[in-house]
Amino acid sequence: MEINLEQKFAEQYGVNPHAVYFTPGRVNLIGEHIDYNGGLVMPCAITLGTWLAISPNADGRHRLKSLNFEEQITVDGNLKHDKNGSLWVNYPIGIINELLQDGKQIPGMDFLFYGNIPIGSGLSSSASIEIATAFALNDYLNLGYDKLALVKMAKRVENDFIGLNSGIMDQFAVAFGEKDKAIVLDCETLKYKMVDVDLGNYVLAIINTNKPRELADSKYNERVAECQTALSLLNEEITLHNLCELTADKFALHSHLITDETILNRATHVIKENDRVHLAAKALNNGDLEEFGRLMYASHQSLKTLYEVSGKELDAVVDFCSTYGHVIGARMTGAGFGGCAIAILEKGFEEDFAKHLTDYYVDKIGYAAAIYISEIGNGAMKH
Ligand code: ADP
Ligand code: MG
């Protein structure tokens, strides 16, 4: 951590924190816009994340402060609270509400957050702050939840309190991640396997397009609705709970039910992307990174043309990667419409890549992207 959170906590609240916790952000290696369609995704935790220092206080109220934001909020301890506009405190407050709703008593606590995940860039700083809060309170107060219960709680906060109809992938990844492993997660059954990611002579580069975010949440909810439309049309002939129950072959037998081209494209992306995750897991197990990289490019192409969630910024990054000699795979990651891309970059070319990508990107887009080299790290933990 590049700042001394204990010291900042003491400056803020006049006492030392009793405990400090860390929860990472995540990237999804492949399997995009799949989680809410009940298919397979392949996220991993990264080494950027959110730290949370906590201490109980004497006045029975919660005091919440983040070093990333101006507003500090004080709320009554054992009362549920309404959503407060789009303030950052909604995320921890949402978790506290869930705990109260579940009958837990929470003594007044002081909270200090700090995150180094670029916020609102698709690396799941929101899941990170949710799980950081839930994990810390559960551990410190011995509330007795298992990790999966915390993941489901954080998803409810994101869906019902914040209002984003996202699937379970983000919360799952930042809670369950393990160093140098990807999680192959079935979003319908929540069964998962950890797969070794041996990058060998390559590193994981994360490229933030720095595109100002607009309309991303409403476009996201629109895609969720389009998939539901496809599902109900298919259900006229077969019984399906979600699109990812279909293989591409089986889908071809029933796709005539979808006459709207846009809806057909959305469903086609989902079903083929789900197949690609199976292939990508096989490629990793076989140590075939080149095949993995090809699947990443194919995923991006599908997200760009069929699912229409990319954009000129993400496309510029991936176009550059595909012509730069030392990248074997690249794609947008997360919901899209801006946010981040990832690339599998040959070791030793980090600086050269950053320089040439920056020149290319500034020329095309007019401002710079930010480039991080990340390791695959561990999930939520006591620091
Ligand atoms: P993403 O999850 O892609 O980073 P979101 O819009 O889903 O973007 O979540 C970002 C929001 O999460 C921020 O606007 C803020 O409200 C909250 N948040 C994330 N990290 C922090 C932090 N370190 N401190 C306070 N709030 C945070
Ligand atoms: Mg988010």
UniProtKB/TrEMBL annotation:
Residues 90-177 form the GHMP kinase N-terminal domain. The record marks 26 as: Transition state stabilizer. It catalyses: alpha-D-galactose + ATP = alpha-D-galactose 1-phosphate + ADP + H(+). Residues 280-348 form the GHMP kinase C-terminal domain. Pfam families: GalKase_gal_bdg, GHMP_kinases_C, GHMP_kinases_N. Keywords: ATP-binding, Carbohydrate metabolism, Cytoplasm, Galactose metabolism, Kinase, Magnesium, Metal-binding, Nucleotide-binding, Transferase. Substrate binds at residues 32-35, 220. Residues 7-56 form the Galactokinase N-terminal domain. Its EC number is 2.7.1.6. Pathway: Carbohydrate metabolism; galactose metabolism. One of its GO terms (molecular function) is ATP binding. SUPFAM superfamilies: GHMP Kinase, C-terminal domain (SSF55060), Ribosomal protein S5 domain 2-like (SSF54211). Belongs to the GHMP kinase family. GalK subfamily. Catalyzes the transfer of the gamma-phosphate of ATP to D-galactose to form alpha-D-galactose-1-phosphate (Gal-1-P). This is Galactokinase. It comes from Pedobacter petrophilus.
